[in-house]
Write a structure and sequence with these properties.
With 141 residues, this protein is α/β, with parallel strands linked by helices. Helix content is 35%, strand content 21%. α1 links the parallel β1 and β2.
Length: 141
């Protein structure tokens, strides 16, 4: 089985990605900041992982590679959303959206690089709002 990591795995989109990868014969390490749900259908279900903790993510990915072998795929799904107009919003929202929508992908990718198989793939999931944001979507986009 080829190992894959899915971040944000316990959310709706993450669950769908995990399910599809498992159906295609991958062994999947499901990684999320949330607590792992009982009986989650992945090879490894790793909850309570702070995906903006550089050293922590590196240690988790090293563990995954030790247990499952060289990583064949990484799917960065982790993220979040806030609707807030620029004029009435907060700088903290911008910081939070940057951290959970971009920084998690950067740290996850960097942490996976030393453990990638020779023909590995990295997929970063984004939202359509990043291409064509509307009012209130600026911090998210």
């Amino acid at each position: 089985m080829k190992p894959a990591i899915v971040t944000g795995a316990f959310g709706a989109l993450g669950r769908a990605v995990v399910s599809e990868l498992m159906a295609q014969g991958f062994s999947v390490a499901a990684v999320d900041k949330a607590e792992a749900p009982a009986g989650f259908p992945a090879t490894l279900s790793l909850g309570n992982i702070d995906l903006i903790d550089d050293a922590g993510v590196a240690a988790v990915y090293a563990r995954i590679a030790d247990e499952l072998g060289p990583i064949a795929g990484l799917v960065n799904v982790a993220g979040g959303f806030v609707w807030e107009p620029v004029g009435g919003g907060s700088v903290e929202s911008w910081d939070r959206m940057y951290a959970i929508n971009l920084k998690t992908a950067i740290i996850s990718t960097r942490s996976a690089l030393p453990h990638l198989a020779s023909a590995a793939a990295i997929v970063n999931v984004g939202a359509a709002a990043a291409i064509q944001p509307g009012m209130g979507m600026a911090p998210y986009a």
